[in-house]
Amino acid sequence: MNVIQLEQQLNDFNPDIRREALKELDRLVEAGKIHLPEMQDVANMHCHTFFSFNAYGYSPTGLAWLAKKNGYKYMGIVDFDVLDGVEEFLSACDTLQVRGSAGLETRVFIPEFSSREINSPGEPGIYYTMAIGFIANSVPPSVAPILADMRRRAEERNRAMVQRLNAYLDPLKIDYDAEVLPLTPAGTATERHILVAYQKAAEKLKGDGVDEFWAEKIGLPVEKISALGKDPAAFQNTLRSKLMKKGGVGYVKPDAGDFPSIEDVNRMAQASGALPCAAWLDGLSTGEQAITELLEILIRKGTAALNIVPDRNWNIADEKLKQIKVQNLYDIVKLAKEFDLPLNIGTEMNSPGQKVMDDFSAPELGPVKEDFIAGAQFIYGHTALARACQKGYQSDWAKTHLPARKERNEFYQTLGQLVPPGFKGLLMLKALPAEASPAEMLSLIKQQVK
């Protein structure tokens, strides 16, 4: 079996096939039959896997190999409403010696901003939030109902959307169980899976007349639909906008009862040893223009880090808009420093056309690159110590020895700089004396990695 076939198997829905393919690829690397580049000081800590939706079909294992194959030093996964890929990803990172982390993304309601749009366009009070630094697929029993409720709410929203779209797109109809869920490895579908199911069903039902069908249903000239068809990413995004987002027939304006509270999500994360993480869009919304007020509220509720998607804040054709967004990017990075919030950055990879890695050589990212890498080092350091010694960011040990957020951040960042990836790093950390203080721990590690 050749390398291309093995790489394809990394994204198979069968976990045994993924596992065996990774073993074989790793064996080929060790045998010198696959030559890999040196690791680069770059990071993508926000990659969705196929357990929610990855636009390129990557599994957790596939993303770990992507990092190793391309020399990406830091890689992190983030899935919507589920932790199904955490252990698989971290295990694959161990095998491949990639510095990894794992997290979760969801939407919540923030009552203090109920009249202001934040980072969910057109939806006042609704907020995309995250938690990073998980080390297991499961959470403690005391907070397990919160995670289960997140999954349940997501499925209820999906099924209700399909009912509305089926009624509007008649005679085109899809069966959620038979046509959407098979597109997922673990039954956790998203809007994008639903969209793919409708596209497949439309092509099967309408054949050569599919452009005319979509033109009628979404109110665009057939010539426009045909042109969009040459750019699958643009076409899919147009369909999603017209059918599923605000103003579309499948859309229903959410309210406070449609999503969990941020307090519950943060409590679930903290009980699991993970870090509640704010998410920043671009600074243009009413809510994000009050970003200081928002961050103060979120920090009181437990937020300990901040996520940014850099590419959408500098890689912009409109020069005037670009200047505004780039300055907003610099401002939010500066504010995050003032609030002692480490940065979690990445490309998402859950929409066609999104990059697999940010362009760290872009001049626009020069002033903030070090902050991006520092954030990746921080969350890797937390993840490694939590896995090896149960002494992650939220542990009693950390709170006792490092009570201030700033000093705690600096410790885990330094740890992430020093500790080698994979089994070597985990064994190094496990061998540390149980009574070692943070300073002693760093000193011992420095001696070993010289």
Tell me about this structure:
This protein has 450 residues and is an alpha/beta fold. It folds into three domains: 1-33, no CATH class; 36-139 and 272-449, Metal-dependent hydrolases (TIM Barrel, Alpha-Beta Barrel); 149-243, no CATH class. 49% of the residues lie in helices and 11% in strands. Helix 3 (60-70) links the parallel strand 1 (40-47) and strand 2 (72-80). Helix 3 (60-70) runs parallel beside helix 4, helix 8 (210-218) crosses helix 9 (222-228) and helix 16 (405-418) runs parallel beside helix 18 (438-449). The longest helix has 26 residues, at 144-169. The relative contact order is 0.11. The mean pLDDT is 95.
Secondary-structure blueprint of this entry?
Blueprint (H helix, E strand, L loop, with lengths): L2 H7 L5 H16 L9 E8 L12 H11 L1 E9 L5 H11 L2 E11 L16 E7 L11 H26 L6 H5 L10 H16 L3 H9 L3 H7 L3 H12 L18 H10 L3 E6 L10 H10 L4 E4 L10 H20 L4 E3 L23 H21 L6 H6 L3 H14 L3 H9 L7 H12 L1
Parallel strand pairs: 1-2, 2-3, 5-6, 6-7
Antiparallel strand pairs: 3-4, 4-5
Helix pairs in contact: 1-2, 3-4, 8-9, 14-16, 14-17, 16-18
> Strand content of the residues, in percent?
5-15%
Instruction: Give start-end ranges of low-pLDDT stretches.
Output: none
Report the CATH superfamily of the largest domain: Metal-dependent hydrolases
- Biggest β-sheet, characterized? 7 strands, mixed
Distance between the termini: 40 Å
Number of domains: 3
Query: What is the averaged pLDDT score?
Result: 95
Strand order of the biggest β-sheet: 1-2-3-4-5-6-7
